[in-house]
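Researcher: Here's the sequence for the chain we discussed earlier.
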Amino acid sequence: MIRLSIPFPPSTNRIWRHVGAKVLLSKEGRAYRARVAEAVMIARVQGLGRAPVVLTIHASMPDARRRDLDNLLKAAQDAMQAARLYEDDSQIVDLRIRRAGIDRVNPRLDVVLEAA
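Model: Thanks. This is the structure I predict for it:
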């Protein structure tokens, strides 16, 4: 079981950029992935490899604005994959996300990953 906190993700609309026919990770998207990788390194956790994954997320929001919870997932899942917590987000067999209130000082995603 892996427990860690990762930074609150930027909007999905700000993570990807269209350049001609290509879709590229934006500067903000690259910075987010780097912050998640740093959180993983600081937590000193080992990834789950190729095992099926149960992912639970408690989202501490930065403010009271309306947000769709599912919009928080793509950037966070891709960043956790890039940080090698699992090999591919297709390994996720059970996914749960819930609001954990507002934390204006430290908005974050508290994450639990378990091998299924």
